Amino acid sequence: MRWGRIRAIAIKETIQIRRDTRSLIIALFMPFMQMILLGYGVNLDIKHLPVCVYDREGSQNSQALLKHFQASEYFSIIAVLKDYREAKAALDSDRCRIVIAIPHDFSQKLSDSGGSTVQVLADASDDNTANIAIGYAQSVVGEFAGNLAVAAQGFGGSPARLTQGVDLEERVWYNEDLDSRNYIIPGVVALIMALVGALLTSLTISREWERGTMELLISTPVQPSEVMLGKLLPYFAIGMLDAVFCLVFSVFWFHVPFRGSLFALFFTTSLFLVVVLGVGFLISAAIKSQVGASQIAVLVTLLPTSLLSGYAFPIDQMPPLVQWVTTLVFARYYVTILKALFLKGSVLEDLIRPVLAMGIYAMVVAFLAGRAFKKRLD
Amino acid sequence: MTPEPGPMVEAKKLVKNFPGVFAVKELSFSVGKGEIFGLAGPDGAGKTTVIRLLAGVMPPDSGTATIDGIDVVRDPEKAKQHLSYMPQRFGLYEDLTVDENVRFYADIFELPVALRNQRIGPLLTSFGMEPFRKRLAGQLSGGMKQKLGLVCALIHTPKILLLDEPTTGVDPVSRRDFWKILYGLREEGVTILISTAYLEEAERCTRLALFHQGVMAYCDTPAHLKTKMPGKLLNIASPRAREIQKRIQSLEGLSGALLMGDHVHVAVDDDLKRIPEITRALAEAGLPFDPVTVTEPTMEDLFLALLKTKGASP
């Protein structure tokens, strides 16, 4: 292997990237767009849920309870209904996700027996939101009066009952605000790196075949491994640049805490980039058309990374078979590492297992990529 | 006491098949130092495949080839040190400038930087490309592109040049310039193997191989090849040459009638017998023409005649 030839290819490739608008957009603009879209778009928190109320009593007590709902950041009362028919219509038409119905004898029961019920009708077609909303409703009602019981009548779901008597003191670690953005953003970083890295390199060999420059290149004494290294070096630099951008954007724009070691971040990011760039290169060497190669690149990075890496959907809640499949998804290890680095403040020693897994992956991919591209026509 | 120099290029029983077709059938030939060896023949005759096999970018199914004594089949990477290949399709980077392309190929062949910078200027100047150094290769004219290809091919002073139809689609003036450069290189001792679809170019080669359907039908100097022309070639000049070509095609003893502007070249088995016959037939048809004469065959006449006698016509 000769450094002079590797350098020649790296310089050539850098000039080509600089003159290719498409590459520049993928390398520089796409990370920014994805940060914005996914950082703002993917939000698992439920806030200001639209709610309709059906107050059958209209007393001071019932109004006070509704004020509690209004004051809560979880709900926004959007309409006051007059009967159950309207309640059903409101849920059916998606005007609101839940309806709170206060019985006509609300105050009377409160004063008589010291306990009354409030009905919650929830649209459980999105069961996750319905469950969370019922939970929030329970806490609002519980706040209103410690001895009130809520009979949450799931609309197609099961009724929930508030159990009194035991106080749970919660203490949440690592993501104290339970802000789902803190949980999502590190995964977004992995997603961006995987997509950008594989997309850029997936074109690098196929472009030379398509434009006819490969035939001349393979008639020179240059070795396949030199071509691979020379071509991947500029993309590695771009990848690291994107990593720095993502980190800065996450911490200073989205205010995601970064508590781990920067060294660990850049070390693991390098490993991840080797895998991603290598995979892109493998695709590029196997598929001689640019369109085909870039489609395959999106398929093998975006899909597994967004669905199976644990970036938004926790792996331990998946069926066992799918969990096993995720061990093959290289982004999974990087997502684990990033979440630990951002939120837990881990250092490299804490992450030996995922780092090792990525290291093995990187070696295998680099080995394959070095041999993937053959210097011959057929 | 210097040993007899071996051939610079030698092919021994090269075979290459593509699904359904023979591209190259048991091809053997050798090219000596300083030759301009031409490969001529119609499209699909296997010229490109032969050059690719010799350039080491495509492995043969069987047979061997050597470049300056190095086995291309067994050690293609070593052979590539000594040769330069110009593919038929423009192989340089259109999004790189002239300078950047040349520098890239110099670095790929590991030319020391000082030597590289020393060579680029004079080479570009001698090709008349000095004013275009900062221009993108994609914005050059067809002739300029081919010259740039040659500059990149020559930057590492190869012993052997393999050129696949370098002048196809290039204007006549640039083509003439290109051949001047080739003759210059030949004087410097570079061995050149060139394929061409232009038969008048083939005449400029020191030796010429005529390819047809993967087989080298003939291989000799252009002058010798012409003596192999069976029978005689007649020239009929007429303002209505096209009609004459049509009229005489049915006559006996003709192996071909080729229209060349206001002439018709007619290949016949026996000039003494056929001239009066042709003259009579044309007079009967009332077509105007100058007296029929015997003429020197051009490469085109030769090619058609030779392929016909080989019985290998399509």
Number of helical segments with 4 or more residues of chain A: 14
Going by helix content, strand content and strand pairing, the class of chain A is alpha/beta
The dominant shape of chain A is elongated
Q: What's the CATH topology name of the largest domain in chain B?
A: Rossmann fold
Q: How far apart are the termini of chain B? A: 51 Å
- Provide the low-confidence segments of chain A as ranges: 147-168
Q: Give the radius of gyration of chain B.
A: 23 Å
User: In the CATH hierarchy, what is the architecture of the largest domain in chain B at level 2?
Assistant: 3-Layer(aba) Sandwich
- Which bin fits the share of residues in helices of chain B? 25-40%
Write the layout of secondary structure elements.
The complex is a heterodimer of chains A (378) and B (314).
Chain A: H1 3-19, H2 21-41, E1 49-55, H3 60-71, E2 75-80, H4 84-92, E3 98-102, H5 106-113, E4 117-123, H6 127-144, E5 149-155, E6 160-161, H7 180-211, H8 213-217, H9 224-252, H10 262-286, H11 290-308, H12 320-326, H13 330-344, H14 352-372
Parallel strand pairs in A: 1-2, 1-3, 4-5
Antiparallel strand pairs in A: 3-4, 5-6
Chain B: E1 9-18, E2 21-31, E3 36-40, H1 47-55, E4 62-67, E5 70-71, H2 76-80, E6 83-86, H3 98-108, H4 113-126, H5 142-154, E7 160-164, H6 172-187, E8 191-196, H7 199-202, E9 207-212, E10 215-220, H8 222-227, E11 232-237, H9 241-248, E12 254-260, E13 263-268, H10 271-285, E14 293-295, H11 299-309
Parallel strand pairs in B: 3-8, 3-9, 6-7, 7-8
Antiparallel strand pairs in B: 1-2, 1-4, 4-5, 9-10, 11-13, 11-14, 12-13
